[in-house]
Structure formats: structure tokens, C-alpha cells
Amino acid sequence: MGEPRPLLVDELEIEKLPGQATSRLLVELVQDGLGRPVRVPVLVARGKRPGPILGITSALHGNELNGIRVIHALLEQLDLARLRGSIVAVVVANVPGFERRQRAFSEGTDLNHIMPGDPRGNAADVYAHRLVDRLVIRSFDYLVDLHTASFGRANSLYVRADLNHEVTAQMAYLLRPQIIVHNPPSDHTLRGTAAERGIPAITVEVGDPQRFQPRYIRGTLVGLRAVLGLLGMIARRPVAPGAEPLLCQRSYWLRTAHGGLLEVLPQLTDQVQAGAIIARLANVFGDLTEEYQAPEAGVVIGKNLDPVARTGDRILHLGVLAGDDHDFHRR
Question: Can you give the pTM of this predicted structure?
């Protein structure tokens, strides 16, 4: 209905885009087997005055969609006459995965496990490298990477951040998540790659895949506006205090030892004690074959919703709470 046509580009040159305006770009990264360009959709909102550049990425896993709605809502609410700096929003970072409604890249690679990619590697390596090189490193001063749970799983609203870094810790708390997990940067993720290059970065897990969840979207939107205030890009406004997030010093997934029909008992954000029964496994005849216990006390960050489990499938994501004497940066 008369919407503006996006600008086709090979690289992001923010300074050449109009000020006090939102530009639509399609940035070419690679080509498919027919030689057709694979282009990443990017929205660039430039403020009236100079300032930092906040990068927001979404759908690096192609079926993780809540972040797309977060980006749309944020840019719709922005008053560019009052914005300092720019917001660069990569609406769909994994275009091949998005088109296939799948988490991974076209041939099955998880892009968020191979960052910063390799310019001489396979198709996924090159795509990851160009995403980092042409968008993140050249442009971003800060990064918020929006994700959700994987298919067949559910997530709380939680943030991964290096809590030993003051700015990323502040960003994490301002998102007002249910849980914050301390996660140092060297992990081959987009967040970790940005952090290793001096770009303060956090990952926000916004609920579940392949759906829009208004409650999580609204909460993340409020948090992003608070981050913009922290960075001096918009006026800081008082935010109604939310519940104090549970702080985890580390986290990991528990997995099945055998296959069968899995029932995970705790709910998201439940705290479990060491030895508590967290899941039961039955065979196809209905016989109970195994009960799983929590190896240590912690909080349920995410859980498996799919009853059909193979050997080695995920049960739940357990966060180990930080003690009161932790030395992480605080709110």
C-alpha cells in the first residue's frame, strides 16, 4: 500500500543515510545456487543529533520471531527528533533459516555456534563472517541480540551477559528479565564475538519460537527503551520497578540417558533443590523407565515441551544461582 521501497546495498554506510528518518535496507551477504542475492533486511533509524549506534539483531535462528515484533514496536514509538545517534535493527539475521521456518542455516548449521565465521569456509561460515564484518563490527557501538527458545522448548524471559563488565551488566538489569545468567564472551556466539571486539553486548531470550507473545514483547520493549536512556540516546524516564531478577553464576542443560516419553515436572522459573525429581521417562507401553533428579539446586530457565525424547535430548535448562557474596556488577 505505497510503502517505500528498500535500498539495495552491499554494505552499511549509516552516515550516507538521511538524518531524522528511518531507512529500509536490504544488505546483500551471499548468493544462492542460482546466483540470486541473499539479502538481510535492516532498518536504520537516525536521530536528529549525533550519538551512539545501538545494534539490535533478531532471528539469527530463523524460527525465533518475538524479536521481530520487538524491533517493529520500538521503531514505531521512536521520536527521531529527540533521538541521539542511530538504531540499526537487523530484522531477520538468518534469511535462509527464516524462509524455511527453521532454527538453523539452510544446510543445518547453527549460526550462533560458529561466530565470527570464516571468509574461506563453507556457506554458513561465509554468511556468518559477512554478517559480523559488514554489519556488526563496522557499525555497532552496542548490541542487543534477541532470541527465543528452540523448537519444542519454552524459555523464561532471561538475559545472558558478562556480569563482570559494568555496561553489559547495566544493560542486562534494565531489560528487567526474570533471570540473568552470567556468560563470559568467548563462546562463538554473535554476542560473544561483539564483546571480544569491545562492543558491549547482551543476549535476550524472549520466550518461545514460531509465535508472537505480546507479554514478553512488551516487557522487552520497555527494557530496550531503558537501555536507550542509559546510553543517552533518549531521555531517561523512571520505570516502575519490577521483581528482582534471579542471578545465575552459570547454567547448563540436563539431558536424557535413554529414549522414550518424557514428562518434565517443574515450571519455568521454579527453583528446585538438589535431588528433587525433575522429569520422568516412560516407554511406549507406558512403563516408567527412569526418573531424573536435579544434580544441584537451581532455577528452571527453560524446559523441553516435546514428550518424544531420544537418548541425549534436552530435559531442562538449570541455572545455578549466584550467592549473596558474588562480585558481579549490580543494578
Answer: 0.94
